[in-house]
């Protein structure tokens, strides 16, 4: 960051995209792949595995 030679005012007036460009960082993230989505779903499930949805949207415990 010190190599950019920006004053504090110049630094704080930059947008995140401008700063990323100046630092040589690609500001666009890669598209979500099926395997990455599966890994995220496994790590952060919407529900506990002990419940399932009923047709009316309510949950019930599995027997």
Could you spell the SSE succession in H and E letters? HHHEE
Q: Give the beta-strand count.
A: 2
Rg value: 22 Å
Strand numbers in spatial order across the main sheet: 1-2
Report on this structure.
This protein has 63 residues and is an alpha+beta fold. 38% of the residues lie in helices and 10% in strands. The chain has helices at residues 8-13, 16-23, 34-43, and strands spanning 51-53, 59-61. The protein has a two-stranded antiparallel sheet. The longest helix has 10 residues, at 34-43. The protein is elongated, with a radius of gyration of 22 Å.
What are the salient characteristics of this protein?
63 residues, two-stranded antiparallel ribbon, 3 helices
Question: How would you concisely characterize the structure shown here?
Answer:
This protein has 63 residues and is of the alpha+beta class. It has 3 helices and 2 strands, in the order αααββ. It has helices spanning 8-13, 16-23, 34-43, and strands spanning 51-53, 59-61.
Break the fold down into its secondary structure elements and pairings.
Elements: H1 8-13, H2 16-23, H3 34-43, E1 51-53, E2 59-61
């Amino acid at each position: 960051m010190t190599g950019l030679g920006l004053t504090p005012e110049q630094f704080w007036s930059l947008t995140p995209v401008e700063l990323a460009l100046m630092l040589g960082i690609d500001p666009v993230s890669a598209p979500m792949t099926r395997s990455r989505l599966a890994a995220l779903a496994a790590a952060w499930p919407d529900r506990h595995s002990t419940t399932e949805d009923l047709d009316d949207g309510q949950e019930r415990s599995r027997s």
